[in-house]
Design a protein that fits this description.
globular
Length: 338
């Protein structure tokens, strides 16, 4: 998905890196991806140092990825107080200036307090597709532009009834998946919550200094459990601050989110690429200019075709794509498709 031109003329990864450029020098931007995507990303992001684009040999969710990144940043950083920003590559953000101001304020707050900071998005509806963060009292004595609140805990993606409750209470924010911390703060959290990943981060730091990161990646990653940073760390610590999101934000984590960004055409179909259909309505179709997708007499489907994979899904089940990814990840012969 990061390599697709879903919104505009640039891929999602190009947009993500481009938004950061005014705040973070290119030498300090690290891209962690699947090893099969390293070559195309190096071609797209040729202004970044080639060694800053690192490929995971297998997918292990976000916690091992954070450990890898923390080790690499520790090797590069001049101080343990260096701020580290963790940003997914499937977000759509148009108000870049407001985003950069928020990230700068979050970095400042993380360094001042030693807390882990996340950005919470004000819900616009009772979504069952996002995790939530319960916000407590506002941090006093804050001289920054961004408002900060103390976290009262993370909540998994809720059912419809609970999502409606969260939405009405006004003290819950969508979990954006954007985290800001100092290198030392995240290392302390890893040591406390997932010691094995802290040890792995130390190995990655040394490997980066020694110039043999590829060998250590192959050795360490296959032994990792598949676990998210939310579950491994964020749900278990209490030194978390929530920054108020002051910029527009949308997550293309689900294919149905494209409806927020692309104006539907005939029969309420959202289409990117070549498509022709008969009696097709309420569908999301994503392809390219070289491959024709066709359909007959279908309603409310998601059809996505890329170079090496095709997805056909009932739009009501879009959130289950993550289940499918885990299923594929459990089969070694299919791992190259992740």
């Amino acid at each position: 998905k990061q390599l697709l031109r879903l919104i505009g003329n640039l891929t999602l990864i190009e947009q993500t890196v481009g938004r950061l450029k005014p705040l973070v020098p290119g030498n300090n931007i690290l891209v962690i991806t699947n090893q099969d995507y390293v070559a195309p990303m190096k071609a797209l992001l040729s202004d970044l140092p080639a060694e800053n684009i690192i490929g995971e040999p297998v997918g292990r969710d976000t916690a091992p990825c954070v450990a890898l990144a923390a080790g690499l940043v520790r090797a590069k950083a001049a101080s343990p107080d260096a701020a580290m920003l963790l940003l997914p590559a499937d977000h759509v953000i148009r108000n870049t200036d407001a985003m950069l101001q928020a990230l700068a304020d979050c970095s400042d707050m993380a360094r001042r307090t030693g807390n882990i900071v996340t950005i919470g998005v004000n819900p616009s509806y009772a979504s069952t597709g996002y995790g939530y963060i319960h916000c407590g009292e506002e941090v006093s004595g804050n001289d920054l532009t961004t408002r900060f609140f103390r976290s009262k805990g993370f909540r998994e993606k809720p059912g419809a009834e609970v999502a409606e409750k969260f939405f009405k209470e006004k003290s819950y924010r969508w979990n954006s998946g954007m985290f800001i911390w100092t290198v030392e703060a995240i290392m302390q959290a890893l040591r406390s919550c997932v010691p094995d990943l802290a040890v792995m981060a130390d190995k990655f730091e040394q490997a980066s200094r020694d110039g043999n990161i590829e060998a250590i990646l192959q050795q360490e990653y296959s032994q990792c459990d598949r676990v998210s940073i939310d579950y491994a760390v964020m749900e278990k610590i209490d030194n978390v601050l929530v920054a108020e999101c002051t910029f527009d934000w949308d997550d293309v984590g689900s294919w149905t989110a494209l409806r927020n960004q692309i104006r539907p055409g005939a029969n309420n179909n959202v289409v990117r690429g070549l498509f022709e259909g008969i009696d097709v309505q309420n569908c999301i179709v994503v392809g390219d200019s070289q491959h024709l997708i066709t359909a007959i007499d279908v309603d409310n489907l998601i059809i996505v075709h890329t170079e090496d994979a095709t997805l056909v899904c009932n739009a009501k089940s879009a959130q289950r794509v993550k289940e499918l990814v885990h299923l594929i990840g459990d089969k070694p012969e299919l791992d190259k498709f992740l």
